[in-house]
């Protein structure tokens, strides 16, 4: 999702004009037992960089292939600057910092028809214009999952697809009906399927909304965390939803400085730590103040199962408790629009590494920022260090 989009700002204004539901149940937040994230280094790719005949940018998801050492980067370019696509890249980091990333390839994402996805300026019947956000390698590294927030103006809701390593179509899942946009209910336009995590073994995918469903209440603002967002576990073999939990975002850290423009906080990505724990990346944006990012850890076994709830009300569910891993403001670095995270290759001593990437919105004032950080689980266990995805 591109945080400063005017369309999203308009949606927030409209939400502010509607009666607010009762405040959601407060989510318990615990501090980490010890510093859980240590920055190793940062690097960037400048806006306007061209590679393989395409304009590089809009990176909204990242995942690593331990077998090859390459990273897969998915762009949320809605086929405006070039057809929908993924890039491959190599990253190098260690105790001495992080080297400049090296782009190694670009692959077009293809529709089930075999054609590249069309743009909104030249739509094709029966084909959505994807707004790609999440990407995860499936076990073995021959295919990867990828998500789209949807093409609401043309009747396409959020999408979950699998592609072969070369970008050709492998499968499209029929998501449950509650993912479909409808008047007054369902996901918000440009605030829907933002986060994607793959559980160990690759049989279950977790899909995270960025913002609350319309019937659940308003998005977070500076005075309130707003309504919860929904995280849904999908059995990839059958496409059946297995479980759904509510996640309560924080209030926006700072109010916007202008009387208009976005002021929001939502989930920008999720990542499986082990069979029962997810890392949740909260990305906030306030006009005139910029971005703020916090990383939390949740246990997916806790909190109510909300699958059967048509609307989330304070009395009918309990959000999943969350433990703070890191507030990036306290880590001493300026963050951009962080939208993707993945496990990287561990350090020489075996410590786990978390790699994060930002979406530059194809904005000359932004960059594609990469961050490498040592991760120590607040739960006291050992993180997977990249073993949940493409490793055999």
Question: Which terms would index this structure?
Answer:
single chain, 392 residues, mainly beta, Tachylectin-2, Chain A, five-stranded mixed beta sheet, four-stranded antiparallel beta sheet, 1 helix, 25 strands, globular, disordered C terminus, Phytase-like domain-containing protein, signal, Phytase-like_dom
Q: Which structural class should the secondary elements be placed in?
A: mainly beta
| Cα separation of the termini | 31 Å
Backbone shape: globular
* Helix and strand run: HEEEEEEEEEEEEEEEEEEEEEEEEE
* CATH C-level class: Mainly Beta
Low-confidence blocks of residues: 4-24, 388-392
CATH names the topology as Tachylectin-2, Chain A
Quaternary state of this entry equals: single chain
Radius of gyration: 19 Å
Q: How many E strands?
A: 25
Number of spatially distinct domains: 1
Give helix % range.
under 10%
Major sheet summary line: 5 strands, mixed
- Mean residue pLDDT: 90
- Approximate strand percentage: 35-45%
């Amino acid at each position: 999702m591109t945080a400063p989009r005017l369309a999203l700002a308009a949606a927030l204004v409209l939400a502010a004009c509607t009666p607010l539901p009762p405040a959601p149940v407060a989510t318990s937040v615990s501090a980490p037992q010890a510093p859980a994230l240590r920055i190793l280094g940062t690097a960037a790719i400048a806006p306007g960089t061209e590679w393989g005949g395409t304009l590089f940018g809009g990176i909204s998801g990242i995942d690593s292939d331990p077998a090859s050492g390459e990273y897969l980067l998915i762009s949320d370019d809605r086929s405006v600057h070039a057809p929908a696509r993924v890039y491959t890249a190599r990253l190098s980091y260690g105790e001495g910092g992080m080297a400049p990333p090296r782009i190694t390839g670009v692959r077009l994402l293809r529709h089930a028809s075999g054609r590249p996805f069309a743009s909104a300026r030249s739509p094709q019947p029966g084909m959505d214009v994807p707004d790609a956000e999440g990407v995860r390698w499936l076990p073995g590294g021959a295919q990867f999952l990828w998500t789209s927030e949807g093409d609401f103006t043309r009747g396409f809701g959020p999408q979950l697809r699998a592609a072969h390593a070369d970008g050709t179509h492998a499968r499209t899942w029929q998501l449950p009906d509650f993912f479909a946009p409808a008047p007054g209910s369902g996901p918000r336009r440009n605030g829907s399927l933002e986060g994607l995590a793959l559980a160990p073994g690759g049989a279950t995918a977790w899909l995270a909304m960025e913002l609350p469903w319309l019937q659940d209440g308003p998005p977070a603002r500076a005075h309130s965390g707003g309504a919860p967002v929904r995280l849904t576990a999908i059995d990839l073999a059958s496409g059946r939803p297995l479980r759904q939990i509510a996640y309560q975002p924080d209030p926006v850290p700072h109010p916007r400085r202008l009387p208009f423009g976005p002021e929001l906080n939502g989930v920008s990505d999720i990542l499986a730590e082990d069979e029962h724990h997810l890392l949740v990346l909260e990305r906030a944006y306030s006009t005139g103040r910029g971005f703020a990012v916090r990383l939390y850890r949740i246990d997916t076994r806790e909190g109510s199962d909300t699958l059967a709830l048509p609307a989330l009300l304070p009395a009918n569910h309990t959000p999943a408790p969350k433990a703070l891993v890191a507030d990036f403001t306290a880590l001493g670095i300026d963050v951009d629009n962080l939208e993707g995270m993945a496990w990287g290759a561990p350090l020489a001593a075996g410590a786990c590494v978390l790699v994060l990437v930002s979406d530059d919105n194809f904005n000359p004032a932004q960059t594609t920022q990469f961050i490498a950080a040592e991760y120590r689980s607040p739960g006291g266990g050992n993180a997977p260090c990249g073993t949940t995805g493409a490793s055999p």
